[in-house]
Specification:
single chain, alpha+beta, Rossmann fold, Tachylectin-2, Chain A, Jelly Rolls, six-stranded antiparallel sheet, 11 helices, 37 strands
């Protein structure tokens, strides 16, 4: 068993440059020291952080700090009004090493070895001999040892003694190849900088026992030296645990667990000055600690709120046209999430599903449109043995054609290429010196096979039989709302034509409608009462339900309404689907908007999905507060918890912190079992990804089982395998770092 002993001396990465990663074999971690260690604040901080970030490692942290303890075997005329002499570590060190058999020990001794007196070469020599003796004893036991420098003393006479002792300890890095963590230097600089702004005492109690601010500096420097670089910018442990929603409750529970175990082990090992058995037996303490650990696990596994619910697909898409072709579901849409508003879009893709739950795409739908602004494609229209699509590209509508609904599509007329501002192949044609303005084409084919095209500003006309030529007689559909409108939806049910059009935008996006029986071009009338079928629902926190589509399951009376939702603002939207209801007179019922989805719309055979018992990440991105665009009542915060990477919701996602270089997500299946397939849905999949997939039975030893080094534009990324595993880990090496969903079979 490897023993790593970390003693109150330090390594600061600013001067050392190399972290001391915790060896794989480490499980039991023991802290020895005097009063600053004994009170346990920094120990609890470290315990809380490691328990939250590496719960699968099951570290056991035990605090054996004793107030007043020294490593020099020196004592003054007494301590605490001569009630007892200072204890020495030498009286209990061997028992600690032989009884606890720790793998990792932190020992932090501060002021007591100098006895609060001016510097003395004799006392300094005793201190050095004590530290060297400690170092040798630990090494003889088969352990490794890391020293930690003393904290800062805020007094006059004794003030430079910790500086001298700390300098000597740090020097042992080079002269003796010791591992040293420097907490003294960072703490001293912190308080010096603070005093430049205002006079402030290190402690209101005495010159030594600083408050939580200094305790966090200790825990931060130790964790940084162990390679936890996300601590660099944290202002406190609560800030460092931003990725844990229940962190306040968890930190209280960790403190309770620490106190229970400390008292029991001190009573067993020695160091309980009071002489009272206030800790009970070790067995009793372990039982109580196990109960608390289960509570901590429950709170840790509680994910933060997911304000995005169950989105249709695991990506940001908008302006979706959904249809059923040959029994399969297709979703043609705008690809969102490219962080530049309406100045850009993602590449053209089509999502496909057999059951309306598991969606996928592979490659580019419309290669010549790649790199151009590709918006709001229509549904694919079958005609002449081909499929026609009508996207808006660079702000103008075009007709495209393909042999299959999956593409690849190309321009239906002229040369298959695009340039700015538009090409001769636009669906509408320029006239009277005006460009062929028009976006958001919606195609409807009536029972007599006559096709119609509808676009922004409530405009409509016939589409000729060649499917690429529009009639010059343009109709402006009369509606109660005359403001700007886009995203038209047109369908027919039981002899009634329905025309849906948007009103407003952003958080205030709505859909209104008119209906008629005479012709796809009207006349239309608005229903009595409200003609708004979708609008912001503040109680359900659904904002701006806009540009989408209506589709029917062939052979049924079931109709569904798909709509984009405000999402993360700008062009960072997601699409949702709800049931569309009708009144007996054919009027539409206002849609009961939810983010819960409609589930599977067709039964298909599939492998058994393996439940994820727990999930862990290399890091977690801080919460993102989403800013409103025009509605002061809008409130939304996105969290990036690891649990979101495998919650089956599609709307939430895990993303690592910006400085993370590992970028991994790991799932725990609870026990070793057969695994046949992995499907991972990565963030911004249309930009392509590369990754490494590994498996393990113990979360320590990893074996590759999938992935690829080249960027592939698809979702999900599927790996077939025949393995027995408890843990799977994916490390993203190329593309945007983040995961919408991960499914294992």
């Amino acid at each position: 068993m490897l023993l790593l002993l970390i003693v109150g001396i330090g390594i600061h990465l600013g001067c050392c440059g190399q972290p001391y990663p915790i060896p794989k074999q480490v499980k039991r971690v023991v802290f020895i020291g005097d009063s600053i260690t004994s009170r346990g604040r920094y120990v609890s901080d470290i315990d809380a952080f490691l328990s939250m970030k590496y719960p699968y490692k099951q570290y056991e942290l035990i605090n054996l700090g004793v107030p007043g303890e020294t490593v020099s075997a020196l004592s003054g005329p007494g301590h605490k009004d001569d009630s007892f002499s200072r204890p020495g570590l030498h009286t209990r060190l061997q028992k600690i090493l032989t009884v606890l058999k720790p793998d990792l020990v932190f020992a932090c001794y501060d002021m007591d070895y100098g006895l609060y007196k001016a510097f003395s070469e004799e006392r300094f020599q005793k201190f050095k001999e004590g530290i060297v003796g400690l170092h040798d004893a630990v090494q003889r036991s088969g352990a490794s040892i890391i020293h930690i420098t003393p904290p800062v003393y805020d007094g006059d006479v004794y003030g430079n003694v910790p500086d001298i002792y700390a300098d000597w300890l740090v020097s042992q890095r080079h002269s003796a190849d010791w591992k040293v963590i420097d907490i003294h230097g960072p703490m001293k600089r912190h308080w010096e900088n603070k005093r430049k702004k205002e006079p402030v005492l290190l402690s209101t109690k005495d010159a030594m026992h600083a408050g939580e601010e200094s305790d966090f500096i200790i825990s931060r420097e130790i964790l940084l030296s162990l390679g936890q670089q996300e601590l660099a910018q944290a202002s406190g442990m609560r800030d460092a645990l931003y990725f844990v929603p229940e962190r306040d409750t968890i930190m209280k529970l960790v403190n309770q667990r620490q106190e229970i175990l400390k008292n029991a082990w001190l009573n067993h090992i020695g160091g309980n000055k009071s002489g009272r058995n206030k800790g009970g037996s070790v067995g009793e303490a372990n039982a109580r600690a196990a109960v608390i650990s289960r509570q901590i696990t429950r709170f840790r596994q509680t994910p933060p709120p997911n304000p995005f619910g169950h989105a249709l697909v695991p990506d940001m898409i908008a302006d979706a046209s959904i249809q059923v072709i040959n029994g399969s579901f297709y979703c043609y849409a705008t690809t969102d999430g490219y962080d530049n508003g309406l100045k850009t879009s993602g590449p053209p893709v089509v999502w496909k599903s057999e059951d309306f739950v598991n969606w996928s795409f592979s490659g580019c739908l419309f290669p010549s449109a790649f790199g151009h602004k590709y918006w709001a494609p229509s549904a694919a229209i079958a005609a002449h043995g081909k499929y026609f699509l009508y996207p808006t590209i660079n702000g103008f509508m075009y007709a495209a054609v393909a042999d299959k609904p999956e593409g690849p599509f190309k321009l239906a007329t002229g040369k298959d290429t695009f340039y700015l501002p538009y090409t001769p192949a636009t669906l509408l044609k320029p006239g009277d010196g005006k460009p062929p303005h028009g976006i958001d084409a919606e195609i409807f084919v009536d029972d007599d096979k006559q096709a119609y095209v509808y676009w922004q500003l409530r405009k409509a006309t016939k589409l000729h039989a060649d499917m690429v030529t529009v009639d010059t007689a343009i109709t402006i559909i009369k509606t109660p709302h005359t403001v700007y409108s886009e995203g038209p939806i047109f369908f027919k049910r039981k002899g009634i034509y329905y025309y849906l059009y948007t009103v407003g935008g952003a958080e205030k996006y709505q859909y209104a409608y008119v209906m008629g029986r005479q012709s796809p071009l009207g006349p239309f009338t608005a229903p009595n009462g409200s003609n708004i079928i979708s609008t912001t629902d503040y109680k359900r926190h659904i904002y701006g339900p806009g540009h989408g589509s209506v589709f029917n399951i062939p052979g049924t009376g079931d109709y569904y309404f798909a709509y984009l939702e405000f999402g993360r603002g700008s062009t960072n939207r997601q699409t949702y689907v709800n049931k569309l209801g009708f009144n007996p007179d054919g009027t539409l019922q206002p849609v009961s908007l939810t983010m819960e989805g409609v589930g599977a719309l067709k039964k298909v055979k599939s492998l058994r999905s393996l439940p994820v018992v727990d999930i862990f990440a290399s890091s977690v991105r801080p919460n993102l507060v989403i800013k409103p665009e025009g509605d002061t009542l809008f409130r939304r915060t996105e969290s990036f918890a690891p649990r979101f990477g495998a919650d089956g919701a599609n709307g939430s996602r895990w993303m690592p912190a910006s400085g993370d270089t590992a970028n991994w997500l790991m799932i725990d299946l609870g026990e070793v079992q057969p695994v046949q397939r992995s499907d991972v849905y990565l963030v911004r999949p249309t930009a392509g990804h590369a990754y490494i997939l590994e498996y393990s039975v113990d979360a320590e030893n990893w074996i590759p089982c999938g992935g690829h080094s080249d960027l592939k534009m698809q979702s999900p990324h599927t790996d077939q395998m025949k393995i027995n595993a408890r843990y799977l880990r994916i490390s993203i090496t190329g593309g945007v770092k983040g995961i919408w969903e991960w499914k294992v079979y």
